[in-house]
Each structure stands twice: as structure tokens, then as C-alpha cells.
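Hi support team,

I'm opening this ticket because the web form for multi-chain structure prediction keeps timing out on my end. I have pasted the exact lines I submitted so you can reproduce it. The total is 415 residues across two entries, so I didn't expect it to be a heavy job. Is there a limit I'm missing, or should I split the entries? Thanks in advance, R.K.
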Amino acid sequence: MSKLKKKSELEPGAIPFKSSKEYETGDWGITYPKIDYNKCTKCTLCHFFCPEGAINVREDGYTEVDYRYCKGCGICSHECPVKCIEMIVKK
Amino acid sequence: MSELTLKNLSKKPDLICPGARLCSGCDETIIVRLVLKATRGPTIVTNATGCLEVATTSFPYTAWDLPWIHSAFENTAATASGIEAAIKAMKKRKEGPLSNFENIDVLAFAGDGGTYDIGFQALSGAIERGHDFTYILLDNEAYMNTGIQRSGATPFSASTTTSPAGKIFLGKTENKKPLDEIIIAHALPYFATINAAWPLDVIKKTRKGIDINGPTFLHAIVPCSRGWRFPPEKTIEISRLAVQTCIFPLYEVNNYKGKTTYELSSPSLSIAKRPETKKTVEEYLKQQGRFSHLFKPEINKEYLKQIQETVDLKWSILLDKCGI
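Hello R.K., no limit was hit. The queue was backed up. Here is the completed structure from your submission:
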């Protein structure tokens, strides 16, 4: 991202914002999810239920967790229809 | 986007990026992500003060990948109508930055405090004036951001910091404000209740609301793990239980030329067709710490019966309206 602009350089109404992607929340959680790809059925429900948008769908249809942002809430593991996501306690 | 299916939509990038500072397991961003997946193109969002606003835009970061305007608690609907009026004016004069776009959708997000209590008159006025915007109410049933104070949306007997459960009063003594009926009475073109446990239902209803020319209202229930006091992984489960117990039925209301028609959505329709699948309110209440005083030290049958009777009555009234 670009540097913050000075107040005099701004257009009216604009505020110098950075994307929150720079603020990585991955270290908040005490657990992290691990997907078992042998059981996964590509239903992508975990992608829709993730509050952070940290579960992305890959080209091949499987989902993958972005550990930079995962807060470890465990919704994906709790809601997975085939129970292929396991929550593992961080060491 | 050709067709609204989960497979197609899973490839659409999120318009709210990760890195927001909401609690883990918060339902608000699930609803917001689903709603933003339903957008057609250029969209402007306005957001009332609340958890969502505070957590997504901590200076100097923003989680929104689209134009976003902050407004105070009371004037989200007024801001939304202002945006819509500005778009119209620029198109009429054929000048200004917004005049080149064919369709610009206006979305307004607000919590229950900013809708039930503080922002109500602005909302009522904006719906009456008939501005083209979609208002999404994120109802977590208390002022969660400031420390779980009671609001007009807090249900009967829920314990909050300003209506604590003690020896004399067991939580809030009043019922939840019937906002849905009040909004429907404005005879707006489209009203719907949405629930994150059914993602495709949320997306389809949002798209319908955006497509309709005029004010549309979506009421979302948003379980809050901090304020309702349950473990964060149960967010979706409790959200689903709210529908299965008929505490928060899913339905749509269309108004065409002054005639209002009610229609149950499939999760609630299946309960209406097979009443034996309806769960008791006890299953919903006992999962939440804010109702723990009804179960400890002994089960308060009187209160549970009262809550069940209220829910049954409201459900039967809704079934009558839907003609079932």
C-alpha cells in the first residue's frame, strides 16, 4: 500500500485509509483449523460461514485456510457436514 | 454473475477484506460478506455506529473494498437517502462523478440500537419518501459494542448489564419491540428476514431487495458470542435454532399496488408443513448464558411457559398472514 497522504493532498471527503489486510489477526486464536482433503466434498460451506473471509476457494474447488487472518473461532469445524476440519491447539 | 448458486458465488471475491477487529466467531461479518456477494456492480455502503463500524474501520485501516460512509447512530437511513438523491441529481444534470454509472446500489447497515431505538425516525422517514436503498438490520439484541446494555430488541427475560437477572427481576421485564410489523406497516415494496445459517437464502433475498426499485428492508438475526454468552463456534448453530424454534421465522413480504402478501421461506415453510419438527424454546435458551438464570439453580417453568406461549402465538399469527 502507498504511504499515508498529507491533509493538504487529499480530495474533499477522503480519509487516508490503508487496507486492513495489513493488520493480520492470525495470532488472536488459541486454536487453528486443519482440513482433511481426503474427506472434503468441496461443498464450500466453510467459505460462506467464515466470519473473516479467511477460507478461500482454490482453482481445483477445494478450500484453503489463510492462517494470516484466521482467529480460530471454530465455526468451520463445527458446521462442516462431513466433519473434515479439525481444530488444533497452538503450541 | 450469471446465476446465483453457491458454486458460482464462492469464486466472487469478498468486498469486505479480512483483518477486521471483530470478536472471533462474530456473525456480523458473515451476514455482511453474504450480502456483499449479492451486489450487482457499483455499490455505496453507509454504516451506522456500532460494532461493525468500530471494528472494521480502526484508523488508519479499513476493511471495506468499496465506497463507505460512516454516519452517526441516528441517521443511517437519512445518509442512504442522501446518497440516492445525489446519484439522481448527478444523472439528471449529466455531470459529476456518479453520473457515468448506469446502476448504483445503495446499502445501509445498522445494528439494533441504530434501528429499533435511535435511528428509527430517520428510517421511517426514508421509507415513507420512497428512496431506492436496501437497509440491512444486524440484530444482536443489545448494545454489544458499549458493553451489552439492553435495547428495544432485547427479548423478554434476557440478562444484560442494564437489566441484570437478580432475585426480584429475572432479566428484561419487557418484550421485544415488534419492529417487523412496524416496518411492514409502512407498505414498503419488499421486506424479508434473513439468517446466516442459510447462505443462499440470504444472497437471493438480498439480490431481490437490490433489484426492486424502492426502499427494501432486511432483518438479520446476529448471535453475539460475547453478549449472548456462548462459545464462538456455536454462532451458526444458535442462529439456526432461532429459526427451528420459530423465535425468528424466515419470511418475505411483498407489497404490490397496495396489496401486502406474506410468504414463508423454505426453512420455516417445512416447519409449518410438519409442526412436529418444531423445537421447543428451551433448546434455544439453554445454550445461552444470558438465559442461564431460567435453568439454574432450578428450571423456572413459569417463565419458560410464558416465553413458549408468546412464541407460539406470534407463529400462529404469522401462519394466518401467510394463509397456511
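A quick check on our side: The radius of gyration of chain B is 20 Å. Let us know if the file doesn't open in your viewer.
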